[in-house]
UniProtKB/TrEMBL annotation:
The keyword Zinc applies. A divalent metal cation binds at residues 40, 42, 73, 178. The keyword Isomerase applies. This is ribulose-phosphate 3-epimerase. Gene3D superfamilies: Aldolase class I. GO terms for biological process: carbohydrate metabolic process; pentose-phosphate shunt. Its cofactor is a divalent metal cation; Fe(2+); Zn(2+); Co(2+).
């Protein structure tokens, strides 16, 4: 899946579900120490997906300990129920699943009214055109590259045409991918046009988490933004 170059800046979002959960604040700061950094928080309800993770109370507890941007991904059956709680907990972006709501337009309005950015996620079996009517009103589209809710699956490269379709139609959109992604397959995501990359164990289990983050960022700068090697983010010493 090859696409046009784009100018959207890269963001690498370490997925905190893959960290040492007994040391959540320490782990968040280890991989996202600056205000310009990002973390991804997976909220699972045991209903929309089979797993149960955490909710607004955990996000709220973490908020005073982290300067990073909180991208909260709601894999829940009734996302509208959690807009107020997540806003009060300090979420910066509220990403809901298109499959989980009958009123995406109303939900988008509610999320914005609560002061958060808005993302829409699609599962692997959901066609990408399901989000076209809403792209103009949201900040981000998340293309899942695994079936949400099961850990340890491998990256589905056959989702890259969805990413390429979005990038072709919406050059100014932030496009996120999530599931099984690391330095070994980042180039496929970058070439397709993704610029927000969720990475769990590939960051937290790396010998150098920040090294893994920069390697993925450089792939997007090179293959997505078309930057020459001398203008890429420098690798950590």
């Amino acid at each position: 899946a090859l696409c046009k170059m784009h100018v959207r800046p890269p963001a690498i979002l370490p997925s905190l579900l893959a960290c040492d959960l007994a040391n959540l604040a320490h782990e968040a700061n280890r991989v996202a120490p600056e205000k310009t950094d990002y973390v991804h928080l997976d909220v699972m309800d045991g209903h929309f997906v089979p797993n149960l993770s955490w909710g607004a109370p955990v996000v709220k507890c973490l908020r005073p300990h982290s300067k990073a941007f909180f991208d909260v991904h709601l894999m829940v059956s009734e996302p509208a129920k959690w807009v107020k709680d997540m806003a009060e907990a300090g979420a910066d972006m509220f990403t809901f699943h298109i499959e989980a709501t009958d009123d995406a337009a109303g939900l988008i309005k509610a999320i914005k009214a609560a002061g958060m950015k808005v993302g829409i996620a699609i599962k692997p079996k959901t066609p990408v055109d399901s989000v076209f009517p809403f792209v103009a009103d949201v900040d981000l589209i998340l293309v899942m590259t695994v079936e949400p809710g099961f850990g340890g699956q491998s990256f589905m490269e056959d989702m890259m045409p969805k990413v390429a379709t979005l990038r072709e139609r919406y050059p100014a959109l932030d496009i996120e991918v999530d599931g099984g992604i690391g330095p070994g397959n980042i180039d496929a995501c970058a070439r397709a046009g993704a610029n927000w990359i969720v990475a769990g164990s590939s960051v937290f289990k790396a010998a150098s988490p920040l090294g893994a983050i920069v390697a993925m960022k450089r792939s997007i700068e090179r293959l997505g933004n078309g930057l020459p090697d001398d203008r890429l983010t420098p690798l950590p010493a």
